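anyone seen this seq b4? input:
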Amino acid sequence: MTSLAGGLDVSVSAGKDLDGALQIALSAIAHTYDLARLSWNDDVVVTRRTPQQKFGPALVTPPPGAFLQATPQGEKALLESAKEAVGNASKIADLFAGCGTFSLPLAMQAQVHAVEGSAAMMQALDHGWRHGANMKRVTTETRDLFRRPLMVDELAAFDAVVIDPPRAGAEAQVAQLAQSNVARIAFMSCNPITFSRDAKVLVAAGWSLDWVQVVDQFRWSPHVELAAQFTRA
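predicted toks r here
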């Protein structure tokens, strides 16, 4: 369940097959509980109001079950850290970009290339940018960064990189970043263990870990988010 401006966006996965009777029942549930949208096994059953998320000046409609930050307060803290880490970069690559949590706010100051494995999330990000205002150019690329990381020669086009991988970290992508000439890296992580592994590779390649900011946004759980800045030593 995601709380958005239009109300609750509920996405159910691993449910039984959707038939006519179930669709009627789900429609009644959406009405009773005033849901903005209800999806079942990635199929949208009911949309009563467009579920939108605001990223910077853009409004984005995430696909059902899309990755978002856990809390508005945590998202704000991470975005502030990302802005500090990239500095005055004019060309930024946002890797594991999701629906644009970092890409769209950062596009107010820089050109951004957003890369994410989900085509639906890239489409949502692109739509938000095209219908937004006061942003520089944002390009999108659907790409599996675990199997096809941006290579050193591709990274040469950017002044800074924002990277926010899932809990598994970004071993393949970090190996390329470590050898690149990117000036700054804003590294977000929801797993301190894989972050430590990836940070060790960067430091061994000559990068400086300037600071780490812990963001405790996973309430009622032992998990924490963190943001870090790396620069060329």
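The CA atoms of residues 148 and 172 lie 8 Å apart. The first strand starts at residue 2 and ends at 4. kinda curious what u guys think
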